[in-house]
Structure formats: structure tokens, C-alpha cells
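Weekly structure sync, notes
Attendees: PL (lead), two postdocs, one rotation student
Agenda item 3: pending single-chain targets
PL asked that the sequence for the first pending target be pasted directly into the notes so everyone works from the same version. It is reproduced below exactly as submitted, 129 residues in total.
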Amino acid sequence: MFDKTLMIRGDDPRLPEGKGKPAPDIFLLALRALNESLAASGQPEIHPEECLVFEDSVPGVEAGRRAGMQVAWCPHQGVLGAYKGREASVLAGLTGEYRGGGTNDDAEWESKREEWSSKEENLLESEGK
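Predicted structure, written out during the meeting:
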């Protein structure tokens, strides 16, 4: 079904040591592999903001957001309960579980966090919180 080079797992040798979630590297590696495949067939590349990540973990949500991608959080009930009242922070990638050293520039990330903070406020208002 899938080209094996497009299947990226946490133990993928192309992933730098110590760059698992919540670092964005796994999603950026997957996008790079996909874009290399598209380029080989003469198709245009996909940009991070065009990607939709489905994630069940909070570190995975932060990794996807830090990679500049849209994220759908599909948590287990236990995880959802542990983050009750903080759902908007999770979706915005603002849990603070990632502490630098990723492939995206930290200044760019801080700018995105500020943008997402305002979106978080809008989410909370729409939820009536």
C-alpha cells in the first residue's frame, strides 16, 4: 500500500537521536520524505500548513503544531480527563512540554505561540469557559 520510505516511526534511523515527540522532527521528516516522493514524480510539494496530523497524545499535538501543521487531537478518555479544562491549550500546542532544540527557529515558534494563544482565547470563548 505505502512505500516503506514514507512510513516514519519513532525509531526511524533518519530521525535524529533525542528528537522524538514533542519535538517536531518526526512530522517534518515525514513531510520531507513525502515531498521527495512527489518531486520524483513531478508533482508539487506539500507545505506544512497544508498537512493534517491526527494525534492521540499531548506531546504529539505539540510536535505537530511546532512543525507548522494543523492537528486533530483524538485522545483516549483517560488523557482527555487529565487535561480537562486545558483542551484549548493542548490544541494550540501550548502545554509547554517541549523545551527547544527542534528544527524550527525558536523566534518563529514564539511568534506562532503568540498567534495560537489568541486562537486559544477564541476557542475558550466559543466553549463558554
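Discussion points:
- The chain has one domain: 4-126.
- The mean pLDDT is 81.
Action: rotation student to compare against the earlier draft before next sync.
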